[in-house]
Amino acid sequence: MAMAQVRDVAALAGVSPATVSNALNHPHRVSARTLAKVQAAIEELGYVRNDAARQLRAGSNPAVGMIVLDAANPYFTDVAHGAEQHLAELGRPLLLGNSAQREEQELTYLRLFDEQRVAGVLIAPVGDVLPKLRTLKDHGTSVVIIDRKAGADEFSSVSVNDEQGGWLVADHLIDQGARRIAVIGGPGSLRQVRHRLHGTQQRADRTDGATVEFLDTGAMDTASGRETVQRLLERPRDEWPEAIFATNDLVALGALQVLARAGVEVPGEIMLAGYDDIEFAASATIPITSVRQPSEEMGRQAAELLRQAIEDPAAAVQHTVFQPELMVRESTSAH
Amino acid sequence: MAMAQVRDVAALAGVSPATVSNALNHPHRVSARTLAKVQAAIEELGYVRNDAARQLRAGSNPAVGMIVLDAANPYFTDVAHGAEQHLAELGRPLLLGNSAQREEQELTYLRLFDEQRVAGVLIAPVGDVLPKLRTLKDHGTSVVIIDRKAGADEFSSVSVNDEQGGWLVADHLIDQGARRIAVIGGPGSLRQVRHRLHGTQQRADRTDGATVEFLDTGAMDTASGRETVQRLLERPRDEWPEAIFATNDLVALGALQVLARAGVEVPGEIMLAGYDDIEFAASATIPITSVRQPSEEMGRQAAELLRQAIEDPAAAVQHTVFQPELMVRESTSAH
DNA sequence: TCGACCGAGTGAATCGTTCCAACTAGTGAG
DNA sequence: CTCACTAGTTGGAACGATTCACTCGGTCGA
């Protein structure tokens, strides 16, 4: 309760508050003797500086806020981890927020970060947040967009070529003999989902008889994958697709659970592919073919672009686009 | 850059700054007419209040900080999710920090939260943080410990009976015919690891010939699990354990990968059990027997205890202990 | 009619830190 | 001996929102 302040430290050390501040923030301006005295006083009183006062005076907060689509998705924890590492090197704490694919949550966190006057924001957007991001920029907060090249001329971004990812999967599935492909994922409003679907469609269009059907799961988690595939299996047997492409691995794992429970052979009766190549895809009941994205590297690069934007807000925006890689496993290729 | 302040809003609305503040924080003190004028002015200027100034004046930060052992572990993301939900209902933002089982990181976050004067801290501790937690408490920050009943008379806590969890696993393994049991996990300094091991040992002591061996993996992730089991398999075949009990599911999944690659039959040659019952344990190549903990519920309860501690710092500390439940799957029981 | 009372609004002080300009004492060049 | 200069230190003014004690009309009960 009785929190020590600079003036208490100053009194104990026999110097002025200004000197204590200098000792803390510009040690070279202070003689070795006083520095030692001040440090001893800080130690004795257990002084911890008040960040609010510090920020108020400084006018800005060194921290960076990050908003991910789904904190339970290993892909995003990897991205966050990459970002956190790089930011830690820059001495910037990372505040992590989870939008859980809900626009309302997303806006809540954006407002929070705005009120906190954070130096920058990393965001994988759900809804249409461009207006809010512009506001942030007006307020002097730099923004880097992850996983989506939106507002391309306004904000730097880090993304993966999702169309190509979709193409790679479709190419492989068709090569393995599949013609009727069901793409499952959602909500359909998510850029990632649309792009992966689009890439799939484009590849299918080049092969006679190849068709693509999209089933919106509503969300990108295991439960949604289960429900959707459950409904799919209720169709007459001859209307089943030959392959299911889940737009992320959580959905794919949910799909696999249902297929296994229903006794459907994978890949014999239905092939299954996922996206993100999270660690658990490879160690699933039947290892799942998936599209690898360099998640940690993406986080690190996002943090790096943010660093540049913070240092020079007027600099040109940059877009880093990573290339996806197909990891073929049992779920699509009988051995 | 040109950030609007209360006084700008006040000027535009034709009232005093004090009134704007009242309109924002105590709307009932202000007439409907002025409230409307103020809101219009806020809208027009895009005013966002400065949290630092607000906190400085208020003397405290409504937010709550949380430090988890491993943000990549679904168990912890579930706990965090439960806590976040409950805190959101209380109007408190959650700042999430990841100690990644490193004491240094842990202390960094604790210092950050202390400087921010957060209202409370939820922590799953790695190192010996009791002194630092006492400091926080002195500074008026309430603390609730997760997953460990330490400093039992000083801080409220939420935990699971880890000894019993260990016992349950050992009981089942012995029942299935195993005698030589290897417990893998680490670092050994982690309370959870020690307790689970202890429970295992206690159960083994009651059966003739049952032995328990502990192998420290150094960390609780998949890679560490792989390495440790790799080394284990290098022993002469007749020195292999009959069962491996991994102290969390990530380690178990790593173990399973190595066993599969080496062509070791599970559970035929070696049985395998994990802990936490994360979703991926059930959908692994060979579904893994695991100990379920009510993760989301634990997070929610931790947040609730914290709420109580914040409201009445002098109140008696409380400990909620949940009971673990064994989920038997293929990895320990041939069908 | 008078005073008590009430709702609405305000001026000024305040939170704890940092920064700027100013000051002091000591040093060394001319 | 004087003056310019430096290293070290300091008083006091910010930063932006909130709050407290207070004012000002107006209403109501006696």
What would CATH call the architecture of the largest domain in chain A? 3-Layer(aba) Sandwich
Largest interface: A-B, 47 and 47 residues
Helix content of chain A: 40-55%
Classify the oligomer: homodimer
| Biggest beta sheet attributes of chain A | 6 strands, parallel
Count helical runs of chain A: 13
Query: Distance between termini of chain A?
Result: 68 Å
Structural class label of chain A: alpha/beta
GO molecular function, one term (chains A, B): DNA binding
Organism (chains A, B): Nesterenkonia flava
Keywords (chains A, B): DNA-binding, Transcription, Transcription regulation
Protein name (chains A, B): LacI family DNA-binding transcriptional regulator
